[in-house]
Amino acid sequence: MKKVYIRSYGCQMNVYDSQRMGDLLGPLGYEAAAAPEDADLIILNTCHIREKAAEKVYSELGKLRYLKKRRARNGNAPVIAVAGCVAQAEGEEIVRRERAVDLVFGPQTYHRLPDLLKSHALSGRPVVETEFPPEDKFDHLTKTVPKRGVTAFLTVQEGCDKFCTFCVVPYTRGAEFSRPVTQIETEARALVEGGVREITLLGQNVNAYHGLGTDGEVWSLARLITYLSRIDGIERLRFTTSHPRDMSDDLIAAYAENPKLMPYLHLPIQAGSDRILKEMNRGHHSEDYLKLIARIRDACPDIALSGDFIVGFPDETEADFEATLAIIREVRYASAFSFKYSPRPGTPAAEMAGQVADEVKSERLARLQALLASQQKAFNRGCLGRDMAILLEKPGRHPGQLIGRSPYLQSVYIDAGTHAIGDMVNVTIDAVGSNSLSAHIHP
Ligand code: SAH
Ligand code: SF4
Ligand code: F3S
User: What are the pLDDT digits (tens) for 338-396?
Assistant: First the structure.
């Protein structure tokens, strides 16, 4: 057996892609290595979203260079591959900057990995593959999926046509594309077969999904969710990430009508100031977002809302920043991610006047995160004493303890008794911390 070590950076779509790479390598005789030291093939599946994310890759490659050199002396140098969004954005530049790299391929070419390995083995030279291919990569991935546990990601939509001025995704992932329903269904059934009970549908703009349905019509995400929720064995569905502009009425209605769709929504607004939203090319005003949130809460009063925020976008004034805080106060998020704006090469915002000083960004981020942390705490506190269904996912810290997920995506620690991973249990929440809850199972 050969061994592969895959390290995933960035978003859930990369986690999914990394798993699919592993699935492709299985039939070639590879099994998973516990650490890079034991691997014959090391893949870094990279993220380009912020400068720090991209820089991490080069520092990791620096370490791998020594590992490769050391092992070359014993004649077992590993093959080093850079995949993902840095690979797509930088291509050839990566092998120029880091000579230890053997393979470079992007998010839309990883299905060619077996061929790339072969041509590298034949030539002994670096192979770079970052063209957007004409074929559908999903047609070339394995149809069977090995065991994934009780929850799994399933990519249904890829790429982005929105071109927010700060963002690299449209360049690294390419144009928006939706997978056909039958292809998704086949994969979902294979996951369920392997024991998965909860599926999170993924896409950079997942709610813009418009794939070919089983009746030859174009289906929306809401229709896809309705269809998948009829598969026996699927207990819960989630989806991420959504754009406010694509939050259609049928998708909002699905929260009220479909008990398998969990009451959780990640719906980033990024900033609260309309002037900044316009400069970001987000295509909506803060008022539209608030109205949308009100309609979603009408359909699903207990929904847990999540979002992403960027502070220090070019020309952001203190007043603009205050508008972001005001939106957050109004919405009351259950959880959220927030970042300092990072200028990315090739994106319009990187060239804009009025780049904000790093100290200002740091100071704003700290204020924003304090507010978000207090909201998360409040949301969790609101769960105290409540009854809810928990899907048991993994072992906890103590013997007999299991960790499950609430409908709102919180981690819940439970003394599970005779219950096992994969069981759905009804509990009462006994205690809340900032990041997790604990509960007891109803007798
Ligand atoms: N498609 C999603 C976002 C994908 S990127 C959406 O439209 O909401 C994930 C998050 O990274 C974004 O929501 C944004 O908050 C953040 N991000 C993207 N580019 C960034 C940049 N240049 N600097 C800082 N944060 C960024
Ligand atoms: Fe990036 Fe905007 Fe597309 Fe989201 S919608 S992936 S932030 S360009
Ligand atoms: Fe990063 Fe690419 Fe995802 S840039 S956030 S890995 S789409």
Answer: 999 999 999 999 999 999 999 999 999 999 999 999 999 999 999 999 999 999 999 99
Residue 82: C-alpha distances to residues 32, 98, 156, 229, 330 (Å): 17, 11, 24, 36, 42
Q: Answer whether 46 contacts ligand 1 (Cβ < 6 A).
A: no
C-alpha of residue 169 to centroid of ligand 2, in Å: 6
Domain boundary among 92, 111, 129: 129
- 110, 164, 169, 342: residue to mutate for ligand 3 pocket, most atoms within 8 A of CB: 169
DSSP 8-state class, residue 10: S
Give residue 167 CA to ligand 1 midpoint distance, Å: 6
Ligand 1 within 6 A of CB of 272: no
**Of 438, 411, 439, the residue nearest 426 (C-alpha):** 439
- The answer to whether residues 74 and 221 belong to one domain is no
CB–CB of 200/239 below 8 Å?
A: yes
* Closest ligand 2 atom to Cα of 308: 7
Distance CA(362)–CA(340), nearest Å, equals 7
Atom number of ligand 2 nearest to Cα 173: 6
Residue 189 sits in the same domain as residue 313: yes
Identify the CATH number of the domain in which residue 118 sits: 3.40.50.12160
What pLDDT, in 10s, does the model give residues 254-273?
Answer: 999 999 999 999 999 999 99
Q: What is the pLDDT of residues 69-81, one digit of tens each?
A: 999 999 999 999 9
Q: Which ligand is nearest to the CA of 16?
A: 3
Residue numbers of the domain that contains 104? 2-129
Is 424:235 a contact under the CB 8 Å cutoff?
Answer: yes
Any ligand 1 atom below 6 A from CB of 165? no
| 8 alpha carbon – ligand 1 mean position (Å) | 18
Name the pTM for this structure: 0.96
Number of the ligand closest to the Cα of 312 = 1
Q: What number does the ligand 1 atom closest to the CA of 309 have?
A: 15
Which residues contact residue 290 at a Cβ distance below 8 angstroms, ignoring those fewer than 6 apart? 327, 330, 331
Measured in Å, residue 149 CA sits from the centre of ligand 2 at: 30
* Exposed/middle/buried for residue 258 (C-beta within 10 Å: 0-12, 13-18, 19+): middle
**97: burial class by Cβ within 10 Å (0-12, 13-18, 19+)?**
exposed
Q: What CATH number does the domain containing 366 carry?
A: 3.80.30.20
